[in-house]
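The pair is set out directly below:
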Amino acid sequence: MSYELNRKLAAPRQPLPTTQSIDPVTADIIRGAFETVCFESATYLGRAASSPIINQSNERNAAIVDAHGRLAMGAVGTPHLTFVNQMETRWGLMNQERYDWGPGDVFLANDPDHGGGHLPDYCVYGPVYDAAGELICIQTLQAHQGDTGGKDPGGFSLDATDVFTEGVIYPCLKLVHRGELRRDVFDTVVRNNRFATFAGDIAAMIGGVQHAVKMLDGLIGKWGSGVIKAAINQSIEHTEKRVREEVSKWPDGVHEATVFIDHDTAGTKDIKVHVTCTIAGDQLTVDLTGTDDRAELVGVWNTFANTRSYVMCQVVASMDPTIVKNEGYFNAVEIVVPEGCIAQPPPNKPAALGSFHPACEITEAVCIALSGVAPGRAQPQLYKIGMPNMVVGFGDDGMMWMDQGVDCRSMDVSAVQGLDGWGSCPSALGSLILSEAEDAESRFPILNISREMTTDGGGAGRWRGAPGSLNVKQVLKPTSAMAWMVSADHPLRGMCGGDDAIPYTNHFELGSPGERRIVHTAQDLLPSGAVIAYQHGGGGGFGPARHRDAEAVKEDVLDEYVSVEAARTKYGVVLTGRLDDYSLGVDHAATAALRAEMAAIAQ
């Protein structure tokens, strides 16, 4: 557990050895087959798991890593999970003899200091061998688990000063040996988790990996291991070539951005993330030098592997979406992360909350820095939520339950050039489908009172950010509630002259004598009947608001995305008529005059 280990895990890997040549069509057929394998593996998990965060929200992803530890393919899932899989797997690859790897084995890893993200992101993987016993690739499945067996339910400890506070750590644990479940190990892992659903979740992960391994066995048997290795090499080389071609289209230059987190969980203000993106020919370098490195910070430590992943999520979003997402990106892009800063902490730092912040600020800073060279794809791939409002209680049977706050909402969906922000969650969450509020009510003693979009809740711009939502929830039994509130002082930034989104706010015991606004952190016991109101921030706008089509602003007002007042003050649009009878119209002459005044002031 050291910076030296991080350097080894991140070091470039050589192509797989093979004497086979391959044509582009065959290579692409095999690449497509790999994509299908990943899709089936992730779908298997989504359908078989017990927890709504997996079987509804789909917070999981499958990936194939080759025998050298290179990312060969990822499924359409949660992108930041795709780009961290190979780092965790590399630790196992470096210790194959120590852990007695063989056909039919399945392993578990979640160690932040051995290539992992935060503890709740469990990675289950299985090696794939050819008939001669040569390791060809590894099938991986990663998913967010509801608990980690640490001090606090869910693994999110607001006051954690080391990773051991957050839960049980697995660098590389064998769950299945040569096809047989190690029941003692499985039972131990399950026992170190608070939730009855966990056994089903981890069993589903094992099954999803085994299903995919069988499919990969069939592909190797059909094409031969030499052709499969050649196809992997070709796909990675092609991606690197495509990425370098994209970068070479951008003008050479240095682009910097600084983004702040409101505070850490101890109250220290304005935690800084700084990014410098340098373009020189076909080489892109993303350098986090200048990012906060104060040793006394609490709760804002992102793992090295996670930092690389969140940087890459934004880089990928800035380029042609048809480029295959694999190790070629990492070969083409240099990522510099100073040792000891919050983006590459010393060993044993807590990491659970780091996947929210500074991870999101890292992504946001990369987006801002690249917005000048790739404005057409400048949409932040993040979620500025501090952490969900998790409420925890006990059933009559003594078993703990947790509503993780991942049900329906709208937040952080920014506009991009040519397109208003749309949907209910940011692009970074990929195929994440927010859980049904009705399902949460059937599982937990809570009542979802409202999930309403907030008028003027998105950043104004030529293209408008999607509004955030006000989520109002009532607990029907005494429950514990946790919250870490950020993105109030530093909400989601608009792009290229667009306005920022509205800030986040949060109230406990709304409408009662005990009503209070959560401005920092909370770990409170709520009485039966207490109401929580969580205002999620919307998306940032893109481009100056006064350039938005006036008729589009009128339609926004009719849809209640924008108020009549904001139409005038933010967009410079003068409306006639009334909203209540849908008789609104645009006074184009007055609008032109007002926008001319606004332009003069802006200069």
Remarks:
- The longest helix spans residues 198-223.
- The chain has a mean pLDDT of 93.
- The first strand starts at residue 60 and ends at 66.
- The radius of gyration is 24 Å.
